[in-house]
Amino acid sequence: MRHGQTRFNLQGRIQGACDSPLTELGIEQAKAARRHFEEEGITFTRVYSSTQERACDTAELATGRDDYIRLKGIKEMDFGSYEAHQEYLNPPVHREDGSGYRDFFVRYGGESNVQVYERMERSICEVLNQSKDDETLLFVSHGGAITQFYLHATKNPPVLKKRMSNCAILEIAYDGTDMEVKSIYNPVDQEYIFKRDNKE
Asked: Which of 17, 63, 83, 185 stands the most exposed, by the fewest C-beta atoms within 10 Å?
């Protein structure tokens, strides 16, 4: 799932390797995710979070647990010297092939989209391959990193008509070889922005 709204989200600032705290709305979004998990009877064997404060706080609020495991590999994309500047300075996103900003930020000390999805996939698969088939795991990460991950590391990635909201919850199934996004849920608006047809 994605973390809740932060101060930089509200201010329209680029937020990657740097951090800012959850806003009051961000806290409420995480609590809405917790209500969704409780209503659906979803409990987690283990909870993993990006090392960044906004994700850690979201993990605690969304699960009521403080025994989560921090993973550097699922942190947000590093935007280099663009960090904390206004989002309008971002270059155009390459939507046609899902490659995002490609390697634009590398020249400014940041990461490429390939570096992001490769470390995300490597970190998540390492956890999955050490887990049992009947376990349910929660990973709390970030919008850019999650998008690059599901577009490049999952089978038949969804094409979204709506933007992935703060605290969006992605259900991803893993069969030991492939990962597939089953649904993406916005717990605040209580709506699915994507749900895979069972016939697929």
From this structure: 17
Question: Do residues 32 and 166 touch, judged by C-beta distance below 8 A?
Answer: no
Residues 170-193 have pLDDT tens digits of: 999 999 999 999 999 999 999 999
Distances (CA, A) of 21 to 4, 26, 52, 56, 57: 9, 9, 10, 10, 9
Prediction pTM value: 0.95
- Decide: residue 92, CB within 10 A, 0-12 exposed, 13-18 middle, 19+ buried: exposed
Distance from the Cα of residue 109 to its chain's centroid: 22
User: Would strands 137-140 and 69-71 be described as parallel, antiparallel, or unpaired?
Assistant: unpaired
pLDDT band at 200 (very low <50, low <70, confident <90, very high): very low
Bridge partners of 183, per DSSP, are 171, 195
8 A C-beta contact, residue 28 and residue 167: no
DSSP line for 73-86: GGSPPP-GGGTTSB
Say if CB 127 and CB 81 are below 8 A apart.
Answer: no
- Rounded CA-CA distance 50/74 in Å is 5
